[in-house]
Amino acid sequence: MQNLMIGKGKLSGKGVYANRDFAEGEVVMAYKLKELSQKDFDALPASEHKFTHSYWGKIYLYPPPARYVNHSADPNTRQDLKKMCDYATRLIKKGEMITTNATLEVETELKTFAAAYENNPIKDFKWLMGGYRNAEISYTTLAGLKRNLRLKRVKGNWTVLPK
Length: 163
Fold this sequence. Notes:
four-stranded antiparallel beta sheet, mainly beta, about 45% strand, three-stranded antiparallel beta sheet
């Protein structure tokens, strides 16, 4: 973490800052998400729930410092879940707060949930409305079926609501 430091921010009063310059495309932080069972999630203190996200129908806990990366509509990093890292989308100067677009993170949650729900990749994904707690999505299955789902985040993961 010598390249980064935790300082003041909006997530539990914390944020992540660059301790050196990062070039565009450079990995700013690597992290190892911890997969949680429902029992693990339920055992977490409520204050830790905001540091969890769900991908592919599974709940993951973000470790420090990744959990303190603040949202920005004009972020300086982008998440890569396959490589489990955030990389710089532009030059980041020493002392600058590390930010990401949390909206893209939620969209990734919704897309990966739909693929896990179908147990197959999907296409033509659209996030129709909602946000971190409730959402409505549409997509097409590989078999060509069009789906519209209303979702609610319940106990750390997305749940399909009845129509």
